Fold these 2 entries.
Entry 1:
Amino acid sequence: MKYKVKHTAPALDEFTILRSQVKWQNPDDKTLKVSIRNSLFWVTVYDTNKLIGVGRVIGDGAMYFYIQDIIVAPNYQNQGIGHLIMTHIENYLSNTCSNGTTVGLLSAHGKESFYEQYGYLKRDGSALGLGMCKFIGK
């Protein structure tokens, strides 16, 4: 692969463009800047100087970690970039997490098998309950 991988946050404009390419809504710039800055770990993938993929870990840095924003630009999907991002995230987690740590994520519908390859379990409600979330609107 000819792509450059960094463990630094993307620039605000790069991140908003990438999110828009996959049809995700962007919050206002102030909110997005704080979110970028407060992340625990970033993986950014570049083709030359163009951001083509990201992934990040958020959480308290001790007991709870959450994988967020695994994004690959549409023209670069199905080329292993998502796996590249997850490999870097999994390496970070294995070097950072201790026994008893919980790592969570929300998978896009139909993408659960991608995360199952890394040991993540679907919550069907039988043992762990169903995952839940709340989205705050304006």
Note: The helical segments are 12-21, 29-37, 81-96, 112-116.
Entry 2:
Amino acid sequence: MLMDVQTLRELADVDICTVPKESLVDIRNVKIDGAKERNERISDYIRQVKNPYCFQCNGIIVKMNFSQSEGTLEEKLAGYFLSV
């Protein structure tokens, strides 16, 4: 597991109305090496973005939500990086 469940819950609970924008990573600055193995790409993404549920893009705060029936964050990231 990349992060423990408690940490993921805390990151998912970030309130976009109160989170300081400057504390969020701009997704445009995240660079992933497509030549790396899937798990390494996922780890790189999380290391760079810091909060996979909340980040900014060109000054706009973005919050990601997933229903439990759609799979875990790890499964979503794995699916994304398999498509890259």
Note: The helical segments are 5-12, 38-49, 73-83.
